[in-house]
Target: Adenylate kinase
Amino acid sequence: MNIILMGLPGAGKGTQAAKIKEAYPIPHISTGDMFRQAIADGTELGKRAKTFMDEGNLVPDEVTNGIVRERLAQDDTNKGYMLDGFPRTINQAQALEDITNDLNKPIEVVIFIDVDKDILKERLSGRIICRNCGQTYHLTNNPPKEAGVCDNCGSNDFYQREDDKPEVVENRLKVNEESTKALLEFYDKKGLVKRVPGDIGIDNVFAEIKKILDQI
Model:
């Protein structure tokens, strides 16, 4: 089974990817993993990617697409693979289609974990951290036992990371939503998208994903 796993930030994609990997004998391939492996293997494309990354620049599509091709050509993907974090653009999606067709490993399903934007904002902006010991909490899902007091060290000093602040979360979701919408339209036209509600509990979400995968 050849899968693309998609979801906006906070949708629970990482949790479900881990469950899929545990249940099915296919590699979980993220963009970061592919870059790290290509660099570690010392491939020509890995060396090129490293020069961009070392300078803090985005790796161009031609290099990224080449690394994806190298990774999907490996034997451990012969029985399937799960792509996570790629493609991010229509150009990458078109390149991926060419790559997977050339390798005779076409995408069979695109699973989109669908969660209402207001729920995502609450999930992402609810994280607080104890400044004294670093313990992490969530105001809704995992609050301190006593409001305003760290369970671990008793401190009253909490802070929120910059990228967890509501206004930053709002912008982050907006940017991701735009690119995700375009990709979903691209794959919808091919009849590949399966939407799974992501607000029904972790185990229930996975049960829905499993139903889809077991039909492939």
About this structure: The domain at 2-115+170-214 is CATH 3.40.50.300 (Rossmann fold). Residues 166-188 form the longest helix (23 residues). Helices lie at 13-23, 31-41, 44-54, 61-72, 90-102, 117-125, 166-188, 202-214. The chain has a mean pLDDT of 93.
